[in-house]
Amino acid sequence: MVTKTAIAKDQALRLDNQLCFALYSASLSITKLYKPVLDELGLTYPQYIAMLALWEEDGLSVSELGARLRLDSGTLTPLLKRLEAAGLVARQRAEHDERRVHVTLTAAGRRLRAKAEKVPGCLLEASRCTLGELVQLTQQVQSLRDRIAA
């Protein structure tokens, strides 16, 4: 068990003592859990998080969306092309600055939101946590992420 004091040298490099591995493996488990539900929606997990961001704030620029999702343009551009090909989003160059491209939901993209409302419930059910526990855990991980990024 890890105490408030430093981890003993022989424990420092144990896999099960690594927060990074706990977060990584938990992320893989959640993505695996979501896969059947996302398959029904015709979305991959990265496409799902892009849609989540656009359901929150439609019309983001590609750079704003990339910053929000913490994805670089090399990852985001092909993802958006696939969402556009699926008829869920449209990309449009800004009139005042052709270098800026805005992403907007199509009618089909907006309709998909109602079907996606069941996705978060999968985690709530599988984790056997209360909603409050998941909210608290999410806030703790976000705080950790933000402190590391700073």
TrEMBL record:
The answer to whether UniProt assigns keyword Ubl conjugation to this entry is no
Keyword annotations: Cytoplasm, DNA-binding, Transcription, Transcription regulation
Q: Where in the cell is it found?
A: Cytoplasm
GO MF, one term, reads: DNA binding
Q: Which residues form the HTH marR-type domain?
A: 16-150
Of the GO CC terms on this record, one is:
cytoplasm
Primary subcellular site in the record, as a coarse category = cytoplasm
Gene Ontology terms: biological process: response to stress
CDD domains linked to this entry:
HTH_ARSR
Give the PANTHER family listed for this entry: ORGANIC HYDROPEROXIDE RESISTANCE TRANSCRIPTIONAL REGULATOR (PTHR33164:SF5), TRANSCRIPTIONAL REGULATOR, MARR FAMILY (PTHR33164)
Name recorded for this polypeptide: MarR family transcriptional regulator
